[in-house]
């Protein structure tokens, strides 16, 4: 029985190491859904446009130093400042394709050695994605793709640790996609999984919260 009020947009998150192809796939999914006439937006975290986002951006560019816990909480705050907009978009039936979310937050900070549960705590109460698409690639292969920039985390040894942390976060809402396949193959696979999720949410599915 479809309660009209439960019909909503889907919250779809793409995660993965640097250079796994997330950003390309996000934009392809966006145009695909738009072409099909869906209401859809593409978001990314960190959102560097807010005040908090600017602090994060300067940290990532190595232009400022922050304690590991402090930057972790800023990344989290950057999601909290978008939470209510996120909820209202979803309730007004707009699907959100999100490039990185809380899983990046926990994976990157715990890769530095911060306690996993401590890292998850500030994320509790944010909206839980309906689907997490993990673009799986080994840190070595990702590094071979080149184009690691000069940002703080773009180093092979650190990416190896991040890959391990991601592995501990994976649950039943995750779909692991082989990101070493040609871009078009990955795209095709993602479109299929995403459409299924969008339709489920359209029919009606309650929103839930992360890690509660
Ligand atoms: N990152 C991203 C974190 O460390 N924590 C977070 O919560 C998020 C969302 O920021 F290295 C890291 C991951 C990446 C960097 O991401 C910037 P983009 O996708 O390159 O902008």
From TrEMBL:
It is an enzyme of class 2 (transferase). The keyword Phosphoprotein does not apply. One of its GO terms (cellular component) is mitochondrion. Pathway: Pyrimidine metabolism; dTTP biosynthesis. One of its GO terms (biological process) is dTDP biosynthetic process. The keyword Cytoplasm does not apply. Its EC number is 2.7.4.9. Residues 14-189 form the Thymidylate kinase-like domain. Keywords: ATP-binding, Kinase, Nucleotide biosynthesis, Nucleotide-binding, Transferase. Belongs to the thymidylate kinase family. This is Thymidylate kinase. It comes from Buddleja alternifolia.
